[in-house]
Amino acid sequence: MGTKHLRRMDLIFTRDDDYKNLVKDILSRKNEDIINEMMESGLKGRGGAGFPTGLKWKLTSEKPEATKYIICNADEGEPGTFKDREILTQVPYKVLTGMAACAKVIGAKEGFIYLRGEYHFLVDLLSKAIDEFHQICKVNSFDFNVYIFLGSGAYICGEESALMESMEGKRGEPRNKPPFPTDLGYLNKPTVVNNVETLAHAFTILKLGAKDFHDLGVQDSHGSKLFSVSGDTPIPGIYELELGMSVQDFADDFGDGDCKAVQVGGASGFLVPRKRFKETSIGYQGKLKGISLPTGGSMMLFNSSRSMYNVLSNYLDFFQEESCGQCTPCRVGCQQLVKGIEQVKRGEKPAAYLDVLLKLTDTMKVTAKCGLGQSVANSFQSIVENFKEEMIY
Amino acid sequence: MSDVQTLVKGLVKSYGRQETSLMPILQGVIKVERSISESAMIEIARELEISTAKVFGMASFYSFLDTKPRGKYVIRICKTITCAMKGKNQILLALEDSLKIKVGETTHDKHFTLLETNCLGWCHKAPAMLINEEVYTELTPEKVRQIIEEYKKNEVVD
Fold first, then answer.
1. ipTM given for this complex
2. Which CATH code is given to the segment(s) B3-61?
3. Partner residue facing B85 (CB), from A118, A167, A306
4. Which candidate in A123, A124, A170 is best for mutational testing of the B interface (most B CBs within 10 A)?
5. Is A122 an interface residue toward B (CB < 8 Å)?
6. Where are the beta strands (DSSP E) in chain B?
7. Measured between beta carbons, which residues in chain A are less than 8 angstroms from residue B134?
């Protein structure tokens, strides 16, 4: 407790009063040059899915269509995540600069920030930053406009295709993939959807160069990442850390000395019990050894006073309410899981019923249409398998 | 022309008739009326030349687009894990007690509606709630009682 194993970084929130010159510099660079810089940096999507950002920009830049879009995904809804709001509050111009770089590369004239309805209070501040940014674009004769699109309280709209449906005036129901947004996105035009943090990192990369960013982190998980830390910790908040850290080091630094488990990646992520702290690291696939968990940055700590049954029950209620209801595995699956763990807890079903529910989550993983239904299995399985007795007694 | 018709026409004028305006128009209705009535939906459908079913489908999907009548101040208290761990139920009891209503209900004077909502993104300052667009964090039962008193006082002045 209170150790400092992990190096605390400060790239994202460092003020940069010189950003106007960076915009100018970016706009004078060759597109291939910017794409290469982004690819060499090793930056992967910071919303959690981890798709290489440079590649996404490259694929979209190669599309022949005249109209394309860049959308900044600020529908930060994963339980335990709050970093994107802070980025947009403190350094909105970094995100806008990232958007402009992408717009230049892919050839977009319009960009959108899809801001979750819960962050409505940010609209004035953000609009001011956008107005200022439009001036900079004008000075550099760059034809690019950014608009805010406000969500209305739907977690599923953080899924990129649901987000675009929502912008098109429809229910936030995810689309089939493929086609991917890089082919058919907003209004069926090629579209790049990037997380707020991803765009802010693009700023750092284009400012400092790919190498400085690439040098941070570990194999296949380069750069730093913002982590939203909450739960049983004496120091909740937002921290920028290198990728590749072990959960043990994290719990030592941020736990209250009695850390029983860490939920990595929010309700749709994984619960890591204390016995697996050492062998689990935070990053993308391609790990050196042990278990490696990707994350959008939500880190929730639980101490021994917490019942894992209550934790799971809370997540399942969340998923049941936020499921868009479009596909049966997710809609009915979530309902059955909520009901099922209650029945086991009350003794109305035998403990072995948990195995039936585990199988159900396996089915949801392979049959649900989008990431929401598929990822319910992550927390369900990691909690039930590691804390079975708490589910039953 | 009824008030709601005038409101919808005004919103359509500023956002346009294309379907991409549907969300901002619905949000505009919420801002003034706090909920979207059947007549508002019919009017929006007529103006945008789309089916009323489509408008209802949209309004019923999003949790902030209420279709039931709501009070002037809609209180949404976060019930997701960190807020739940940090005493959300005590906050809820304090709110129910000071407003004399249960979750899901609206006060008789139509000033307050009390609802629960999913993660608001203030887990590091839990428990948290929204009153319309305003955020309140690190709540305690005493603090919410004060906040509600303030709102009530301002209502009397209004």
1. 0.97
2. 1.10.10
3. A306
4. A170
5. no
6. 73-78, 112-117, 129-131, 134-136
7. 121
For the stretch A169-220, pLDDT in tens is 999 999 999 999 999 999 999 999 999 999 999 999 999 999 999 988 877 7
pTM more than 0.80 = yes
Q: N- to C-terminal Cα distance for chain A?
A: 30
Question: How far apart, in whole angstroms, are the C-alpha atoms of residue A330 and residue A335?
Answer: 8
pLDDT, tens digit, for every residue of B120-155?
999 999 999 999 999 999 999 999 999 999 999 998
Interface test with A, best of B85, B122, B137 (most A CBs within 10 A): B85
Whether B84 sits inside 8 A of A310 (CB atoms) is yes
Q: Which CATH superfamily is domain B73-157 in?
A: Glutaredoxin (3.40.30.10)
Task: Judge whether B122 is closer than 8 Å to chain A, CB to CB.
Answer: yes
Secondary structure (3-state) at A352: coil
- In degrees and rounded to multiples of 5, residue A381 shows phi and psi of -65, -40
Give start-end residues of each CATH 3.40.30.10 domain in chain B.
73-157
The residues of chain B that CATH labels 1.10.10 are: 3-61
Query: How buried is residue A371: exposed, middle or buried, by Cβ count under 10 Å (0-12/13-18/19+)?
Result: middle
- Taking an 8 Å cut-off on Cβ atoms, the answer to whether B120 and A79 are in contact is no
Q: Do A169 and B81 touch (CB under 8 A)?
A: no
Among A120, A231, A322, the residue with its CB nearest the CB of B133 is: A120
The structural domains of chain A, ordered by start, are 8-214 (3.40.50.11540), 217-303 (3.10.20.600), 308-392 (1.20.1440.230)
